[in-house]
Amino acid sequence: MSAPATATQAKPEVITFTEAFSRALHDAMEMDPSVIMLGEDIADEEGGGIFKVTKGLSTKFGTERVKTTPISEQAIVGAAIGASLAGMRPVAEIMLMNFITVPMDQIVNHAAKLRFMSGGQTHVPITIRTRTGAGAGTGGQHSDMLEAWFAHVAGMKVVVPSTPADAYGLLLGCIFDDDPCLFIEDQLTRTQTGPVPVKGEIIPLGKAHVAREGKDVTVVGYGRPIRDAMVLADKLAGEGISVEVVDLRTVSPMDTGTVLKSVAKTGRAVVIHEAPRSFGCGAEIAARIQEELFDQLKAPVLRVASRDVTVPFSRVLEAEYLYKASGIEAAIRRTLEKRTQK
Amino acid sequence: MSAPATATQAKPEVITFTEAFSRALHDAMEMDPSVIMLGEDIADEEGGGIFKVTKGLSTKFGTERVKTTPISEQAIVGAAIGASLAGMRPVAEIMLMNFITVPMDQIVNHAAKLRFMSGGQTHVPITIRTRTGAGAGTGGQHSDMLEAWFAHVAGMKVVVPSTPADAYGLLLGCIFDDDPCLFIEDQLTRTQTGPVPVKGEIIPLGKAHVAREGKDVTVVGYGRPIRDAMVLADKLAGEGISVEVVDLRTVSPMDTGTVLKSVAKTGRAVVIHEAPRSFGCGAEIAARIQEELFDQLKAPVLRVASRDVTVPFSRVLEAEYLYKASGIEAAIRRTLEKRTQK
Amino acid sequence: MSANPSFTPATLLAIWRKARQINLIDEKFRGLLRSGRLAAVYYSPRGQEILAAAMGVHLQPTDYLVTTYRGIHDQLAKGIPLKPLFAEYYAKATGACKGKGGPMHITHPETGVMVTTGIVGSGLPIATGLGWASQLKKDGRVTLVTFGDGASNIGAFHEALNMAALWKLPVIFLCQNNLYGESSKYAKTTSVDNIGERAASYRMAGVTVDGNDAEAMWRAAGEAVARARAGEGPTLIEAVTFRFMGHYFGDPGAYIPKEEYEAHLARDPMPATRAAVLASGAATEAELDAYDAEVSAQIEEALQFAADSPFPDVGEIDIDVYGAAA
Amino acid sequence: MSANPSFTPATLLAIWRKARQINLIDEKFRGLLRSGRLAAVYYSPRGQEILAAAMGVHLQPTDYLVTTYRGIHDQLAKGIPLKPLFAEYYAKATGACKGKGGPMHITHPETGVMVTTGIVGSGLPIATGLGWASQLKKDGRVTLVTFGDGASNIGAFHEALNMAALWKLPVIFLCQNNLYGESSKYAKTTSVDNIGERAASYRMAGVTVDGNDAEAMWRAAGEAVARARAGEGPTLIEAVTFRFMGHYFGDPGAYIPKEEYEAHLARDPMPATRAAVLASGAATEAELDAYDAEVSAQIEEALQFAADSPFPDVGEIDIDVYGAAA
Ligand SMILES: Cc1ncc(C[n+]2csc(CCOP(=O)(O)OP(=O)(O)O)c2C)c(N)n1
Ligand SMILES: Cc1ncc(C[n+]2csc(CCOP(=O)(O)OP(=O)(O)O)c2C)c(N)n1
Ligand SMILES: [Mg+2]
Ligand SMILES: [Mg+2]
What we know:
heterotetramer; A: Rossmann fold; five-stranded mixed beta sheet; disordered N terminus; C: alpha/beta; Rossmann fold; 12% strand
């Protein structure tokens, strides 16, 4: 290479989501000895996790702090809860989100409620990392986005990052947050890249992020479709359509203020998520916007999401199941058609 | 008694919810030998269920068809699924809804999906009866309304009755429906009464019921708060406010058509449910209404629901947690204040 | 573990005192419930006092307890003070949980009462985690988790025991086999003669003892505590006992055959243990009566405190949902 | 149960034929995956052919099977035809599940393949229900549910075995212990030496056999089937084996020590069973080769069918979500 030495020694400018998850875990363990981890196959003897996110951690921090568990999701989450009650900050991995159906009692009846039910005497600073997302051809039991369930449970925090840097900062945010957090990693975009985060920089939970400013329409959501929205916003800017993109980052508790501020400005909103449309988180976002901004809205709040069916195996059907970027674009245009009606 | 013989022999004019549940189970077992039941303590040797809903059934239909199970909710639902695949119509009792967190995998990954994943070769005609509801002072782990989770899962049907007669007809509807149904019984109103249903009369799932016609505002919801809405509608009629009450009966798949037809007429909607407000089913109802009827709406769609907290033990707090009839009334009035704004 | 430690009259007396406190409180509560002066879900531990006390005398305040809705005996044996406990039953702001948790969710970390759960079997995985934390911190604490016979059939039991055994955690799994789960007889729901045998599925130390026998229970508990403190792993103790008051307060208990009930009554551990204390010479009748009076006075004082305390402010509803924002 | 039935050369050959069919299909699929001509999640059963076949020869088409993502050997041993199976792997409209389920969710009720699940342990409760239905209907069917060693640590295992034992259901719980769950070694996750021992927790018949030994496996399977058909209840069979191709197709398997791998290779049941068939005189080398050719031709034909079949119509997305409205 002909570039000067400093340049070749410079850090790569981008990292993948997987690297971001890994670094956050690594840095958290380095920052605080009470951070411990457990999950199936996560130690290096088992290859550092089926998705390699935890690779190297057990070697560096010891197999006492990074424990491979049996296939026992109830015990995994329960053990995390118990350890957290004794002052630790456990990070539990539930390999794929469909398996989170197994420890629901531990999460919902215990992790989410112990602070309240104990009158604040105890709390449960655990992070549950899980992974999911349709588009990889893994079918009905390995693709579901179930974040709406947890958003509906008081006491839980639900976080879905849309860039590697956010993934890093938000995962640290979860780990050092004093409440139980569900952190959802997207299976499909895991090798996509983005700018490198600043080491140790925590993104506090509960704040939405205006990922792009605009004035004609607000696109609000979280996770993978935010990436589509950013691309679309660029494209539509060429046509003179100015799209504001609000990335919730923390799905629940939701930063309603930031959403409302944006929609109050643009008068139009398109809500996006990957999960199936009906009874999904988008319904809540839409409901809140129309409740608060009824008189300012120039068009109905539209939702773009996946279909209300089981995730199909065949790619032709899976593609039909998934929300589409073209659907987001169509919805944006539809809200703009309404421009003159009111 | 001095009344003539025919009158004394006439059936009582009202029955309780509990009687309605019991009769539906009884009549279903009588109508179809493939109807079988399982759950904790449900046989007569164990007293016929902790809430006595199954009392008498094992004696009449045999303990082979009415089986008391171990405390094993995963096995209860799994066994129901398996038996249904072999042609039975099992009715599984999950004693209280918070315990449904335990068999979530069986319900969501299996019962709801097997028809789709098998390409229609198999289906899962099970009914899961469960019971819940705040207001009885049973605290954080015995009161939750979690119907929104299941409404978000394609393949599941979710049913919540608001009168004993509906309870009877809808429970029969669930049992004889060919899909997995979740039937939610309200703990608090179980001794309340209503008109007697017609024996054997099935209320088909998927149809909302206009429980009261009106023209100024539509109140839409399901379950316990519908009873409050009916009382309120009477009261407000005295003031010249005409309230239409739409009882969804089947929460999901939702009969959007009936809801939209009503709101198209009234131009105003108040959505009600007992579950906590955020990310609850009311959000979906509100989102759909504003999507489809944006130009007809005279006021934002308002929601009345319980608070976004764990159900507290102390009655003073529990009352504060629960949605209030006065809150429904206030919401109705608020939508009417909007009368002139658009 | 020390081989065969001697069971002294002083130990027997200590067990009696804990058990009797439980017993007097339980009687009091049932009276209050009957008369309507207390309105709360209540799961009487009547019959299970001795086993809880015999376990409790081995524990330090710093040790952890995870128990269930039927947990007042465990909580008292662990040393929870009466005032916050009673005030919680009374749904008051001065309750251990400020009236927000209630009887099924008693928490009192100062005395190690970490979790009381209303979900059958769910305490076992949590206890596993408390034990894991102690193992990591090398703090020498023991975690006791108690549960019923019915709970031994739920999946969480299996997962927790396997994990605790694999990781050699300092956890004691105390199954209080009172022969019924709600109204279901043991044999109707449980496919093994003794739950203690299930320890073999995990190569875990397991034992079945007569939970009504103070000495046998004390020995089994002592061995388990010593094993845990020595870092030698968990123990499953099945303490066979009986619950005399049915599942919940008000349970008519029609599902229990009369002869069966009477046979158990004849083995009621409370009168038997009182007689044993007297026979051992550890205390005189008068001393025991004086103790009863003393405890009764404490109970009255705590009840007065609970009765006099205010209900929580409605503003409490929004507190303790989440911690202070980061 | 008949005492010690004789293991005839004909039986051995029948087992071989099923196993060899599995083996040839597995080899073919791995080739297709490697070359990119097939794109699907795939969990090779390489190493576990004999045990599945030795079980399969005892079953009728009307018996039920519940299996897992690693279930192609079980499905084939149960008699699933190749065309709908392959077409499902190919995500085609002619697949068993119209391309909607995929390899992890193969269903084929005509041959009793009722459920294939991707959730560890979740098939066991469902199998219990299939068995319950057979008991109610007195249809004489047996339900076989297969799962891995790792699955024996999940709660559903415990709940299902307890219920099946209590109710004496005609269910066979076949644990295929291939010594790894994903990349975790057996001993890292399982606290008991032999999973077969866990049957004792349910007073269930339980046995640990060498799953690579056709005769031993055939005997254990036969006893379990006979027990189930006689209404004498369920059996837990642990068949110890090994999986040679790692967890999923493409798994580098770096977590398996080389010596360990080679020791297992030396005990590969396929060459050993082939040799035994020849030694038994049940077939000649030429006959076995002819069988291979015959199966290979069937495979090619079925692959061609799958390749030529259309993908599902996008309209399929809305079908099979719910049944026809009542
Ligand atoms: C997961 C779950 N299922 C069912 C219940 C309802 N329930 C509460 S107590 C109980 C019986 C428990 O029996 P056992 O474990 O023997 O404890 P005991 O009450 O006898 O002390 C049941 C079924 C519950 N609380 N949680
Ligand atoms: C409940 C659940 N947890 C985790 C997984 C991820 N997973 C898939 S296969 C597997 C290993 C299973 O091991 P074993 O039961 O031994 O079966 P094998 O793959 O060896 O046949 C794991 C952990 C899952 N599918 N379901
Ligand atoms: Mg019990
Ligand atoms: Mg395995």
